[in-house]
Each structure stands twice: as structure tokens, then as C-alpha cells.
Amino acid sequence: ILGFPRHLSQHVGGMVITRGPLDELVPIENAAMDGRTVIQWDKDDLEELGVLKVDCLCLGMLSAIRKCFQMVQSHWGPRLTLATVPKEDPLVYDMICRADTVGVFQIESRGQMSMLPRLKPRCWYDLVIEVAIVRPGPIQGNMVHPYLRRRAGLEQVHYPNEEIKAVLHRTMGVPIFQEQAMRLAIVAAGFTPGEADQLRRAMGAWRKTGVIETFREKLITGMRARGLTDEFAEQVFRQLRGFGEYGFPESHAASFALLVYVSAWLKRYYPAAFTASILNSFPMGFYAPAQLVADLQRHDVDVRPVDVNFSNWDCTLEQVPSPRTRGEGQGEGFNGNSPAPLSTLNPQLSTSSPALRLGLRMISGLRQSAGDCIVAARGKGPFASLADFSLRTGLGQAILARLSNADAFQSLDQDRRAALWQSLAHEKSPRPQPLFDQLVAEDDGLPPLEPISPAEQVFADYDTVGLSLKAHPLSFYRQQLDQARITTSAALGDTPDGRIV
Fold first, then answer.
1. 3-state SS string over 244-299?
2. Are 217 and 230 in contact (CB under 8 A)?
3. Which among 5, 364, 416, 499 has the fewest CB atoms less than 10 Å away?
4. First vs last Cα of the chain: how many Å apart?
5. d(CA 295, CA 271)
């Protein structure tokens, strides 16, 4: 019996447990992330030694949803939880079927986006299947196309007997989940529960090719003995073998599907808050901040740049509208325990939607302590000039230069080049002078500089903030691209199939 050690070590997203202190068994070293350690042996070596390894899954989307709930409550009033988000909203499923899912948990990848318009999820269990079907196991096991054909009514579903129908009817005769594979082995091939669990372990060893082949003869023989055809037996085995390339348990997919729906609902009705929450939970997901912000702008939400006079450390919302939709009745109140009516929960996606203000956290290399210092100093009123900013915050030249390069002084009528030029005059933070606190600091009379070009502004934005709200980088080369007859992505939708571009 293994006991918990005095030292626990994270290893490839997991934790290993030994009878004694782990550092007496295996070399341990510090990981790149603070407070994390890794061991120098891989998981296969640990398995050979019989050391227990537990995988610990951490979902950044849980943090993003929690932050979004808090933002919705702060700005609109409703106190949302995973249980009180209005269920089975057809408008949310319409958005999902369009593959408008950038930022949505689990269904934002290109593979999922290509599947969504074909599978057309219309309820929660459809999302359970969607999560599980775009995986190497179902794809390698040739389960995807049969399921889609049957769902579209292009292929009839046939069950050899009622026992098999009871196992596969929810997935139209196609085994998509690991639990189905285990039950199928019992009812179709005569496996005992213990043997079915061994099959599950073989399916779980998805990086060890060939392990599941050891069950082929028993599966085929067992299905023949129960009157099933060789064709059906071979088909089932091919599908089960596909799970050796990574399949999903139904319970796992069901838990994920809840987060899929909740994150999609938040994106549909509170897009600015949803995107802000993802940015505040970074790193996570498939997309960089530039792609998330560009998607938000495509949904007609205003995004505003990082600015020392307006930005907090986190991304925030500005100009929040009334929580009730324009032109609708008063509706009922929200009591915090049951879902509120949609008229009070769902602000329309229009120009009245709140704007997203990018936070100081977006500036590469800026410490949170510096951001907190800026917000605290701004509590006495907006900064009047760069010199005023320097005097009140006490931040040094290196941070002033970083903020200048990020174009964070726009509200002071300072572009990044002028701000950087003035920041060089502040060799170090001036010593506080209480007698002069009431005086407005003035910038030194430095000679003006030529502003940098729009293209240089955009490239500098990407260098410092990771995105630009000024222009798309390729817009500066559009003339050359047009002359080279390069097809734009926007034109692809109207381009005839088969044409070379």
C-alpha cells in the first residue's frame, strides 16, 4: 500500500506518489514555473517501477467562467452559476452550428469548427458527442462518417439484437465512448466485467501500439459464438482498436459539454465580458490575444487600447448599458437562485454593448506590481502629463520606456516615439517633495520628433502588446498583394470550388 510522501512532485501535468520521500528515490529539479518541480524520469520508467502516478487536470476555462460570472454580476446584476445559466438556448446552438466558437471551450479548434456545421448540435447531449467524436480514436476507428450519415438520415441504423441496441442507441449504433466499448465487449463477446476492465486499460494505453490486438481473437470468437456475423465482429474490433489512438469516456465528455455550453452562452450574450475574462486568465485555449480581440471586433464590440489613464491591471468593461434590452418590458427580477428571464440577462449585441478596455497585463514584461502602482496613483485623478505620471507613480525609466513602447500614454497626447523620448529624460524617479505635491508637473521642453509611420506603429503594437487595434499588418502590403493576384480570405467564400488560387 502506497502512502503519501513528504515531498510531492509534479511531472508532465501529474503527481507521483511513493511510500517514502520522493527525493530519496528519483532526482528532482525545479521547473520553469515558480513553485513547480519535475522529476528526471519519464512516466514509462515510473510505470516499470510500479510508482503510482496521478494526472491532475487544470482547466483554465473554469477560471475564465468564474471571472466572467463576476464581471456580469458587477455590471449587469445577475448572479450566475454553472447551474443557473439558462439551458438549451436555441440562439446559442445557432451560433455553435455556424462554428462561431472562437474562445469557446473544447469546440474552438479548426477540427471542431469543421465538424460543427455537419453535426449541427441542438442539445446538450449533442455537445457530449461533439466533444468526444473529434478525437483520434473515433477518427481512426471510422466512427465519424457513419455517425454523421445516420444523423443526417442518409444511412439506416441497424442493431443485431436488443442488447447491442441498448448499448449503442444514444450514438446511433456507433461506439463513441469508452464505456460503450466495455459494455459492448460484455454483451456482444461474452467478456466478464474483469476482462472488460482489462480491455479498458488496453484502450487507455493509447501510446502503446498493439496492446489491444491481444484481445482480437477473444472478441471475434465471442461475437461469432453469439450469432453475430464476421463482418460485424471485424467492424466492432476496428472501432475498439481506434480507442487505442485515444478515445473519450462519456462521463468526461459530459462534464466538458457543460463547460462548452456555458462558455458558448457567455460568448453569445456577454461577448466583451467573455473575451475579457479569457484574456485575464491567459495563457489558455487555442488562440492568441490578437485573434480573440479580432473575433470580438467582428462581433461589433469596441475594443480600446491599453492606456495609463483608463486601464486597470486586468482587462475591463467601459460604458456598460442598461441590463434590460431596449424596447422590452420590465420583466422579472433576478433573485440569484433561479435563472432570470432572458430580457434581463441578455443585452443585445449592438453598439450599446460595453467596450473592452485592454488591461496593463497585456504589456509584455510589465510586472503586476508596477500596474498596481499605476492604478493606485491614478486614484487621486487622471495623469496630466508624462512628468506628472513619473512624479506620482515613482516608476523608473525602464518601466516608463516599456509603457512608452506599448503606446500607453495616448491619453496624454503622446505617441510612443514622443513618450519614449521624454521618458529618457527621467534617469530615475524623482524624490517625493511634499511641499510641491499640489503643483502640476510639467514636461521638460524637449524638441518634438517626427511621428513614426502607421506600419511601424502596428508592428510596435505586436512587439509590445501582442496585437494592434490600429490596422491589420497585411493592410500595408495590400497593393503589392493585389498586384500579385493574391486571393484574400474574405474572397474565398465566393470563389468557385476547384479553382487554383
1. HHCCECHHHHHHHHHHHHHHHHHHHHCHHHHHHHHHHCCCCCCCCHHHHHHHHHHC
2. no
3. 499
4. 64
5. 10
Cβ-contact 457, 470 below 8 angstroms = yes
Residue whose C-alpha cell is 487555442? 286
pLDDT tens for each residue of 366-388: 999 999 999 999 999 999 999 89
210: left (phi over 0), alpha (psi -120 to 50) or beta: left
Coil, helix or strand for 428?
Answer: coil
Tell me whether the omega of the peptide bond preceding residue 432 falls within 30 degrees of 0, making it cis.
no
Give the 3-state secondary structure of residue 19: coil
DSSP symbols for 360-373: GGGSTT--HHHHHH
Cα distances (angstroms) measured from residue 440 to each of 388, 408, 429: 7, 20, 16
pLDDT band at 218 (very low <50, low <70, confident <90, very high): confident
The C-alpha atoms of residue 24 and residue 26 are separated, in whole angstroms, by: 6
Q: One-letter amino acid identity for 317?
A: L
Read out DSSP for 108-133? -SHHHHHHHHHH---SHHHHHHHHHH
CA–CA distance from 41 to each of 8, 51, 131, 448 (Å)? 15, 11, 32, 60
> Of the candidates 145, 144, 136, which has an alpha carbon nearest to the alpha carbon of residue 209?
136
How many Å apart are CA 176 and CA 461, to the nearest integer? 45
Give Dmax over CA atoms of the chain in angstroms. Answer: 97
Peptide bond before 447: cis, by omega within 30 degrees of 0? no
Consecutive H or E run containing 29: strand 28-30
Distance CA 325, CA 319 (A): 15
Give 395's contacts (C-beta < 8 A, 6+ positions apart).
Answer: 370, 373, 374, 429
Grid coordinates belonging to 5? 510522501
Residue range 400-438, pLDDT digits in tens? 999 999 999 999 988 888 888 888 776 544 555 565 555
Which residues, listed in sequence order, are joined to residue 303 by a DSSP beta bridge?
A: 356
The count of residues in the chain is 501
Lowest mean pLDDT among 151-160, 253-262, 445-454: 445-454
User: Alpha helices, DSSP H only, in 342-472?
Assistant: 342-345, 368-378, 386-393, 397-405, 416-423, 454-464
State how far the Cα of 412 lies from the Cα of 161, in Å rounded to an integer: 76
d(CA 278, CA 104): 10
Contacts of residues 226-229 at CB distance under 8 Å and 24 or more positions apart, as own/partner, are 226/188, 226/189, 226/190, 227/160, 228/160, 228/188, 229/160
pLDDT at 440 over 90: no
Say if CB 268 and CB 91 are below 8 A apart: yes
Which amino acid appears at position 92 of this protein?
V
Q: Which residue has the cell 477518427?
A: 139
Integer Cα distance of 267 and 95 in angstroms: 9
Asked if 310 and 411 count as a contact pair (C-beta separation under 8 A), the reply is yes
